[in-house]
Amino acid sequence: MALEHAALALAQDLRGSHPDMAGAIHGALGRGFAGVGQYARALELHAEDKAINEELGDHAAVAEACANLGVCYEKTGECSRALALHAEHKAISEALGDRAGLATACSNLGNCYFRTGEYARALELYAELKAISEELGDRPGVAKACGNLGGCYEGMVQYARALELHAEHKAISEELGDRKGVAAACGNLGNCYHRTGQYAQALELYAEARAIFEELGDRASLAKAYTNLGLTLEKSV
User: Domain count of the chain?
Assistant: First the structure.
């Protein structure tokens, strides 16, 4: 708390002469509080950061503050407020021609719509994320978008398309050496095969996910992989 008070006192001192630095201090503190799950305090700080930069006319900093606020509101279950802020982030990024910022906004908006079961809207945003990531040569971004798109198609019970996208996620993750991404894709592929009664394929993929989680020392995900294997074995007997 002493550090917070010192930082805020410095921000207050800088507010008149260097308001941009004052905003940056609020933003950094907000991210710190969000990182330890203190979202109410983080929201206050990000709101102050946003207000300072709106006064300055620093649209890029306002966009970043919107993103930070939106993520905090997501974490507190206030999806409507999160959607409004992510939409504001998206609009500012489009106006600035900030393609990376636009990709982040599409991802965040898509996540909100996915959580509320609005899969068609989430699909549009994840497809935009994928296109921008491809344009930027952002292979991890493309992989993430494929996984998200696959999740939407699963939610819409379109398993054939979901399988294609999760397979693409797995292939890109293997190319990048992203073991966690490979494991996640294996789990998602396994889920699709399980739901369509293709238990042998599901078992193979769940076993691959289990091996990777063991390698990574991810105990929580390892437990989930064992559960998936057990449930699938029951079905396949």
Answer: 2
